């Protein structure tokens, strides 16, 4: 029998799962995870483990799959709990058949309290961050304060993924997280909504101490091996004081190539020089739209084209790899606006570009504005969200077919701007499998170069994870 068993559909490690597992094990509880894609008979494996609580990572877009499995689990008499982004933002999912509980926001302390109560046969309906459905009644508990000091948490339990799944353990470029939160409030980002959810519950942006991060990297390198590192913080460079302590320490103790996320308004000669000296080989930066009006008024990302061009110039001056993020199908976006995004990217010459189609999740500020202005229907909800940010968008706009086709050619146009006149004609044709295959090939090839993935890394992901779903 196991205390807490987690089911996950996607094949990438989740820091939330690793953190929850670590704190449960620290307090004597057993915890394990199953990747659904790797199980020949998921039901048989789950029933064999006899979990006290069966947990699910629920992502909007995948929530129907989760609810279907949860319903089947409930019929077998299991106690079910949904965690992750979907129940955090849409807690009404508690009403669905098969869902006993949901955990909203940070789940470490809530799940620890839950298992403690269950083990001691105590009431568990009043635990903060949990919504509980019991005997026909739903208990909606308030959010507890944010975890103030991230160093109080144990190191991420990577064993829950690595010790069971070779294709994750053997990847030579591993991800690390040094913070929680983001200093900005862009309308299209989950941080905007999560900050509002935790309003008055403590400082939103928090960082682990440099020493704690270095200690974790050393342990991972010793146990699993490392060739390069990817820091996945929303904004790795937002705290200058933290960086001034971390970067020299990283150079001295780790000295491995790494990649991180930056924002154009924070990019300076000094910053990029310091990153480069510490071992940074590349950065990712959000452009989002090439049209300033859309970027300011729709996305509320207050960064100018001049700042983006200047950042690109500095990054290239220090010969760092540059990856950019972009979005098409914005409310009010014209086809010419979309080509402005292509041209702005082409001007800064990124080594790789990621371009998605807007998924305006319900309750996000951008979705509420889109409904007001008629770009989404008034009854738009979670069931209208696509399962891929590369296939389609629910936004109702002129030239939608052309915008969706442009997404598949986006990277090609950025790398080879002379192809833009041809692409303008091609995007008028019906969408087809060849367009998607072309985008997939370019995306996979250049992503492997930017993130320094080996051929073996690529093959492992290709065989086990739908990593390049476009």
Give an overview of the whole structure.
With 470 residues, this protein is an alpha/beta fold. It folds into two domains: 139 residues, Cobalamin-binding domain (Rossmann fold, 3-Layer(aba) Sandwich); 295 residues, tm_1862 like domain (pyruvate-formate lyase- activating enzyme), CATH 3.80.30. It is built from 19 helices and 15 strands. Strands 2-1-3-4-5-6-7 form a seven-stranded mixed sheet, sandwiched between helices. A six-stranded parallel sheet has the order 8-11-12-13-14-15. A two-stranded antiparallel ribbon has the order 9-10. Helix 10 packs parallel to helix 11. The longest helix has 18 residues. The radius of gyration is 23 Å and the shape is globular. The C terminus is likely disordered.
Report the strand count: 15
What portion of residues is helical? 40-55%
- Helical stretch count? 19
- Spatially, the strands of the biggest sheet line up as 2-1-3-4-5-6-7
Largest sheet: 7 strands, mixed
Question: Can you tag this structure with a few keywords?
Answer:
alpha/beta, Rossmann fold, pyruvate-formate lyase- activating enzyme, 2 domains, 19 helices
How would you concisely characterize the structure shown here?
With 470 residues, the chain is an alpha/beta fold.
């Amino acid at each position: 029998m196991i205390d807490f068993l987690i089911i996950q559909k996607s094949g990438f490690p989740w820091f939330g799962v690793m953190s929850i597992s670590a704190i449960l094990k620290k307090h004597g509880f057993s915890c394990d995870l199953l990747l659904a894609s790797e199980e020949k008979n998921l039901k048989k494996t789950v029933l064999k483990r006899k979990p006290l609580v069966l947990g699910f990572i629920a992502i909007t877009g995948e929530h129907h799959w989760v609810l279907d499995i949860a319903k089947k689990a409930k019929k077998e008499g299991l106690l079910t709990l949904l965690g992750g982004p979907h129940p955090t933002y849409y807690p009404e999912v508690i009403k669905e058949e098969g869902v006993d509980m949901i955990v909203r926001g940070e789940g470490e302390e809530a799940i620890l309290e839950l298992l403690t109560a269950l083990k001691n046969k105590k009431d568990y309906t009043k635990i903060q961050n949990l919504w509980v459905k019991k005997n026909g009644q739903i208990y909606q508990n308030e959010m507890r304060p944010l975890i103030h000091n991230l160093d109080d948490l144990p190191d991420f339990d990577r064993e829950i993924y690595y010790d069971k799944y070779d294709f994750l353990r053997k990847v030579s470029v591993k991800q690390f997280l040094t913070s929680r939160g983001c200093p900005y409030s862009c309308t299209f980002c989950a941080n905007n909504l999560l900050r509002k959810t935790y309003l008055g519950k403590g400082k939103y942006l928090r960082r682990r101490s440099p020493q704690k991060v270095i200690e974790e990297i050393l342990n991972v390198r010793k146990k699993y091996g490392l060739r390069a590192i990817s820091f996945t913080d929303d904004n790795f460079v937002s705290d200058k004081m933290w960086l001034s302590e971390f970067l020299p320490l990283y150079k001295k103790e780790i000295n491995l190539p790494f990649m991180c996320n930056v924002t154009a308004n924070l990019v300076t000669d000094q910053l990029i020089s310091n990153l480069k000296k510490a071992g940074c080989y590349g950065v990712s930066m959000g452009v989002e739209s090439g049209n300033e009006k859309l970027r300011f008024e729709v996305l509320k990302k207050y960064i100018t084209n001049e700042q983006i061009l200047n950042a690109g110039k500095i990054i290239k001056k220090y010969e760092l790899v540059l990856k950019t993020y972009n979005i098409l199908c914005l409310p009010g976006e014209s086809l010419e606006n979309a080509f402005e995004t292509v041209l702005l990217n082409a001007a800064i010459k990124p080594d790789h570009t990621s371009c998605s189609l807007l998924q305006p999740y319900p309750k996000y500020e951008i979705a509420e504005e889109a409904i007001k202005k008629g770009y989404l229907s008034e009854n738009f909800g979670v069931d209208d969200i696509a399962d891929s940010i590369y296939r389609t968008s629910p936004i109702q706009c002129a030239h939608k077919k052309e915008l969706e086709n442009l997404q598949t050619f986006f990277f090609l146009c950025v790398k080879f701007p002379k192809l833009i006149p041809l692409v303008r004609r091609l995007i008028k044709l019906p969408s087809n499998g060849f367009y998607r295959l072309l985008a997939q090939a370019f995306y996979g090839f250049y992503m492997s170069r930017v993130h320094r993935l080996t051929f073996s890394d690529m093959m492992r992901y290709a065989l086990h994870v739908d990593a390049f779903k476009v």
